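Morning. Coffee machine broken again, so started the prediction first thing and wrote up yesterday's gels while waiting. Chain of 335 residues, entered below exactly as on the submission form.
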Amino acid sequence: MSDQGQLYLRKWNVTIASATAGLDLSELHIKFKINQSDLQTPNNARIRIYNLSQDRSSQLLGKEFDRVVVSAGYVNGPYGVIFDGQIKQTLRGKESQIDTFLDIYAAEGDEAYNYSISAGSLAAGSTLKQRIDAYAKSMGLEVGYISIGLAVNPSALARGAVFFGLSKNYLRQEAIANNARWSIQNGKLVFISNSDYIQAEPIVLSPASGLIGIPTQTQAGISAKALLNPNFTIGQPVKIDSTLINAAPTDSFFTLRSPTQIQPGPNGSAKDNALAFTTLSPIAGAGLYRVVVSEYEGDTRGNDWYSDLICFAISPDVTPGSAVSSWPGATTSPP
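Came back before lunch.
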């Protein structure tokens, strides 16, 4: 944590690559917006490169390069890869009579997510860890962080099973059954209990360490804006003093009720009554949260160099790597 305060002298690298070659574009004017989340969809990026030569633009438009890697941070502070994914689409245009741009739209783990098929069989007694390993192998991914409570809990199948279908569907079923969330992060399959976080030292988020403005309690989670920090990875614990957070008004529209407490409306539909009992993400008394959405926005020749975060509260009795009872208001399955 000693380097968290060194958030100045920006540093970046943007490279496009193929199986046989790479091209460093870091000297050009570049804007990027990168979304990471644990919502069981591929992380995505939009990268705008200004005044790229006609030849280089043609190479990209002609799909000679199929991968883009973005690293960002600081010369004397945190620095690292914030996106590494496949180029899905490119678009060339003009912002003015003198400035051209090439937009790159990319996704991380897109092919693994959309097209991987798991096919095989598991013997009776197979554990959750063994099943996750099998799904990851079918997707061509390494296994990253798995909550210790899930990894060591046998969750054994009572009988053998044959499986054939999209790997993402099996992972979603496992996440729902085990009160967890899964995602692809930095080329690895991550599977985290709803009440857990990765085994890392919490990043203290305060005005002295890059916090911008006032964090806010919302339906989606605790929303916070900070100076760009590549360490705001999914599942990373952060610590925010509760006195810094703007609490939502405690009226009939915003409540801390769980979704199961929503009662049917006048016409018998719980959905119609949902607006009256909107679940708020709680403010953690101990100030500990885990990152579930991290959006990076940068401009190599402008002011933007930010991280926009959505965080979930973690119970005070949670220790790194353990799985305990969910915090108040947590849903029993991923969204």
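The longest strand covers residues 79-94. Going to sketch it on the whiteboard this afternoon.
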